[in-house]
Design brief:
201 residues; alpha/beta; FAD/NAD(P)-binding domain; six-stranded mixed sheet; 5 helices; 6 strands; binds flavin-adenine dinucleotide
Length: 201
């Protein structure tokens, strides 16, 4: 069984923000840490990451700015690295596209490429008694493509799974016409100009 000091489940903004903290603080926790992510990248809500669909909150609520405006992991650091800073400032818009924000999260995730195991899902967690009177956690993982199951033992587990898309029963009438907004791109691709699209939040 593999052993890690700390195991993070999910590579969404919550755990990416945690990684940026640990990195900036020079924390030794990073030395024995692994992130399990069941998807194959850190893209943010890819099903709605359109160029003309905007972020719903201030970009200053990125992964690092409120904690440390001088952090190398802010949205502005990303823009500067991609040589987009000048262009972005002249758009006069404080709400970047969801696509650009998703690109930012992928950019941050690449600093931790050797820590994040993509395509690996956590399926269960249990305590393991360790003498004398201590416990560790054992997380069962599943390789998404091969289905292989294995276990990782860890002292600490951080679970940041986000939300599961949910369609109320009374609306789940026709999956070809009613989709959760998280999968909007699959519907848009198949939508002709005379079809109607309504969103509910
Ligand atoms: C459609 C939609 C639009 C949104 N728009 C905004 C917005 O504009 N602004 C805003 O601030 N917030 C928005 N939110 C809220 C959003 O939830 C948060 O912004 C943010 O994504 C939450 O981060 P998180 O890391 O907690 O969860 P998530 O971003 O959901 O990330 C969780 C990650 O965990 C992974 N995961 C889940 N289960 C497992 C498992 N068992 N094993 C391994 N990996 C697993 C998932 O694949 C995912 O990558 C939106 C949410 C939704 C659903």
């Amino acid at each position: 069984m593999q052993r890690r000091k700390t195991l993070l489940v999910g590579s969404g903004p919550a755990n990416l923000a945690l990684l940026t903290c640990l990195k900036e603080w020079g924390s030794s926790v990073l030395e024995s840490l692994e992130v399990l992510e069941r998807r194959d990248s850190a893209e943010w809500h890819p099903g709605i990451a359109f160029e003309d669909s905007m972020l719903q909150v201030s970009l200053f609520k990125d992964l690092a700015f409120l904690r440390n405006p001088a952090s190398p992991f802010t949205f502005f650091s990303f823009l500067r690295d991609k040589e987009l800073l000048y262009h972005f400032i002249h758009t006069n818009n404080l709400y970047p596209s969801r696509k650009l924000f998703s690109d930012y999260l992928v950019w941050v995730s690449r600093f931790f490429a050797n820590k994040i195991s993509f395509g690996k899902e956590a399926v269960a967690v249990r305590f393991r008694e360790k003498p004398p009177g201590t416990q560790t956690l054992v997380v069962t993982t599943r390789d998404v493509s091969s289905g292989d199951v294995s276990e990782i033992e860890a002292d600490d587990v951080v679970v940041s799974l986000g939300h599961e898309p949910y369609i109320p029963e009374e609306l789940a009438v026709d999956s070809s016409r009613v989709v959760h907004s998280n999968f909007l791109s699959s519907l848009v691709g198949a939508t002709s100009s005379n079809r109607r699209m309504t969103t509910r939040s």
